[in-house]
Structures are given as structure tokens and as C-alpha cells.
Design a protein that fits this description.
Blueprint lengths: L2 E4 L2 E4 L3 E3 L4 H4 L5 E3 L11 E4 L1 H9 L6 E4 L2 E2 L2 E2 L10 E7 L3 E2 L1 H15 L4 E7 L5 H7 L5 E6 L3 E6 L2 H14 E3 L1
Parallel strand pairs: 5-6, 5-12, 6-11, 9-11
Antiparallel strand pairs: 1-2, 3-10, 3-14, 4-13, 7-8, 12-13
């Protein structure tokens, strides 16, 4: 068992890493692919994963409830995003190609805190790319998780029970315990 939980709050039992032979499967967009955010979002609870997506959301006038970023874009340092000075900041570590227990817990905590009305940012030392999994699995139903699809655009995932189930299924298929 990779993780356990109840009522939408899951604990990762071990760090997990993407199976190299499954990387291509992960590159498929799992929601609606768009070039922008404008006109796409109808939820009051928004989670962004990635620096470019966060910057796009803010410039489009959407302030996310939770943002997950690493101050890197295509492995180049771009610095901190603007306009998140009022966010509660959580810090975590997450290596490339993995989801660490610490990063999983930070995303979980950020969602819990944001659901109480406090916008929360998760600054990742390492890489945030795979943290869309815990975001989708623990996000309130009806929220949107936005993440970047490299060189293609922004993926908009409307969180439903079916989407959560699919994310859990993919965790078991694509990842292994470290």
C-alpha cells in the first residue's frame, strides 16, 4: 500500500518515485488542455502546480487558494513569484521524479489551511512537477487543479470523485516505493 487515509486526507507511507518505463504514460494531459486560464475556471478553490501556471493565473486575475512552486522553469532559476506576499508559506523538499512523504504532507497541510480561508504557498526545494497527484487526491470536490503541460499549455483538472480515483490508480501503476 502506497498510502492510507480517510475522508480525503491521505498519508504517504514512503517516498515514491516514478518508474522510468512509465514516464511516457505520465506525459498525457489528464484534464482540459488550454493555452490560457481566462474563462476556464468556475471554482472558488484553485490549486496551481508550477511556476509558470502560478504566474499565468495571477496575471489572469485568479489568485489561487494553494500554489505549489519551486522558483524554477525548465530547470532554470526564475525567482519568487510576485503577488503572493499575503500567503502562508510552507517549505518542503522533493527530488526530481519523486513524491516525498514530506512534500505530500505539505500539500495536504496547505489544502487544509486554505480550506479554512488562508491562502497557502508551498515552496519546493527540488521539483514540484509530480505534486499534482496529492493536490488532486486531497483537493475539495469541485475545485480546480491547474498544472503545466510542457510546451503545450495549461491543464485544467476539475476535481471529482472519478478524477481522484484515477489519480490513485495512476499512483499505483506509475510509481514504486523508494
Amino acid at each position: 500500500m502506497i498510502f492510507s487515509g480517510r475522508a480525503g486526507i491521505y498519508e504517504l507511507s514512503s517516498d515514491i518515485k516514478l518508474r522510468i518505463e512509465k514516464a511516457d504514460e505520465l506525459r498525457k494531459a489528464r484534464g482540459k488542455l488550454s493555452q490560457s486560464i481566462l474563462g476556464e475556471i468556475s471554482s472558488k478553490f484553485i490549486i496551481t502546480v508550477g511556476d509558470r501556471v502560478l504566474r499565468s493565473a495571477i496575471s489572469a486575475g485568479f489568485i489561487p487558494n494553494v500554489c505549489i512552486f519551486d522558483m524554477m522553469e525548465e530547470r532554470n532559476f526564475i525567482g519568487p513569484p510576485e503577488n503572493i506576499s499575503g500567503f502562508l508559506l510552507l517549505r518542503t523538499r522533493n527530488e526530481r521524479g519523486t513524491i516525498s512523504k514530506d512534500a505530500w504532507a505539505s500539500v495536504r497541510d496547505a489544502i487544509i489551511i486554505a480550506s479554512r480561508g488562508i491562502r497557502t504557498a508551498v515552496l519546493v526545494e527540488g521539483e514540484e512537477d509530480l505534486l499534482g497527484f496529492p493536490a488532486v487526491i486531497m483537493a475539495p470536490e469541485g475545485s480546480y487543479v491547474l498544472y503545466g503541460q510542457p510546451k503545450e499549455g495549461i491543464v485544467h483538472v476539475l476535481v471529482t470523485d472519478d478524477v481522484k480515483d484515477e489519480a490513485i490508480k495512476l499512483l499505483y501503476e506509475l510509481f514504486e516505493v523508494v
